[in-house]
């Protein structure tokens, strides 16, 4: 009986080391790019650090939880982060978690061989800032504008059937739709590897928590980078843990990671941990697109507050 009670007592005592207000509660949805967080937890890298990971079924639920102050940190896309800023919150980007490197694509039907060939064509795109961003950047590179196309707003689950039935000439999409469209003759004419570093998922922490608990955030970031290094050196073991948690096959996980980059500390230093973060330029371009689409109501954003450039100084 004593052997049972001692571990239980230890758990109870450990849980009492921190009050609820001390915890960094991070919300995520299921996505391979966020898995180093859960891997760090599994490997004990957050031991004695008050970090609580909360998993939701969708990104919209994560945003809702943040707005309702159920969490004080979240894994988000950059446009979702700007939305929180627009809502009056003060999110600080403390990590770039993953960078799309071919995962986001424009797929066209036979006979359309380049983005330039889209002129006058019907293009299906999800009515989100991300979809608009991918399309706008592709058109800019081809010397075209949105006015040169006929835009068809489509939800992601409509991409396949509209393309298959010939209702659109191309779609802006991503996995798993990407593979399905390629299987029926679609052709990739643009992908996110052509705009490196511009489509990212980030980890944000609300400014009030960060100001009061800088050591917790630094330990969280350090745990993340340790997990990323573990994935590089022990890929098979790491992938076993991840596929079990994500409930996907090894092939599906490998395909997902082929289309993204998990930035290390050096890359994060260039993107956000500097006085002139590279991600700021991307954010400015994204803000312009979101304002044009009336997604953002604010006219001005204090982007300097959004980047955690104190991390390296504190190490």
CATH architecture of the largest domain, please? 3-Layer(aba) Sandwich
Would you report the number of β strands?
A: 11
Beta-strand content bin: 15-25%
Question: How many alpha or pi helices?
Answer: 13
Mean pLDDT: 89
Main sheet properties? 6 strands, mixed
CATH class of the largest domain: Alpha Beta
How helix-rich are the residues, as a percent range?
Answer: 40-55%
Head-to-tail CA distance between termini:
45 Å
Q: Runs with pLDDT <50, length 5+?
A: 1-16
Cα radius of gyration in angstroms: 21 Å
Approximate shape? globular
CATH topology call of the largest domain: D-Maltodextrin-Binding Protein, domain 2
Number of spatially distinct domains = 2
H and E string:
HEHEHEHEEEHEHEHEEHHHHEHH
At the fourth CATH level, what is the homologous superfamily of the largest domain? Periplasmic binding protein-like II
Structural class: alpha/beta
> If strands are numbered along the chain, what order do they take across the biggest sheet?
2-1-3-10-4-11
């Amino acid at each position: 009986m004593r052997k049972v009670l001692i571990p239980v007592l230890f758990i109870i005592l450990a849980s009492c080391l921190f009050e609820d207000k001390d915890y960094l509660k991070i919300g995520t949805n299921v996505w391979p790019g966020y898995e180093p967080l859960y891997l760090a937890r599994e490997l004990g890298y957050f031991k004695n650090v008050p970090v609580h990971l909360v998993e939701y079924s969708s990104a919209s639920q994560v945003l809702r939880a943040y707005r309702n102050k159920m969490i004080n940190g979240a894994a988000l896309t950059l446009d979702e982060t700007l939305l929180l800023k627009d809502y009056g919150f003060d999110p600080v980007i403390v990590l770039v978690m993953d960078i799309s490197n071919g995962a986001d694509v424009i797929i066209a039907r036979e006979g359309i061989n380049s983005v330039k060939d889209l002129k006058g064509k019907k293009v299906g795109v999800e009515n989100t800032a991300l979809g608009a961003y991918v399309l706008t950047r592709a058109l800019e590179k081809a010397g075209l504008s949105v006015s040169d196309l006929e835009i068809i707003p489509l939800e992601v689950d409509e991409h396949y059937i509209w393309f298959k039935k010939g209702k659109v000439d191309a779609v802006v999409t991503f996995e798993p739709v990407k593979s399905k469209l390629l299987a029926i003759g679609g052709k990739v004419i643009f992908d996110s590897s052509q705009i490196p570093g511009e489509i990212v998922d980030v980890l944000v922490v609300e400014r009030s928590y960060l100001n009061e608990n800088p050591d917790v955030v630094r330990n969280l970031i350090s745990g993340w980078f340790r997990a990323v290094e573990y994935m590089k050196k022990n890929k098979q073991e790491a992938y076993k843990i991840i596929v079990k948690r994500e409930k996907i096959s090894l092939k599906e996980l490998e395909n997902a990671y082929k289309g993204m980059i998990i930035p290390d500390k050096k890359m994060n230093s260039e993107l956000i941990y500097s006085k002139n973060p590279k991600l700021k330029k991307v954010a400015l371009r994204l803000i312009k697109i979101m304002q044009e689409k009336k997604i953002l109501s604010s006219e001005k954003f204090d982007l300097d507050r959004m980047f955690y450039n104190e991390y390296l100084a504190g190490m």
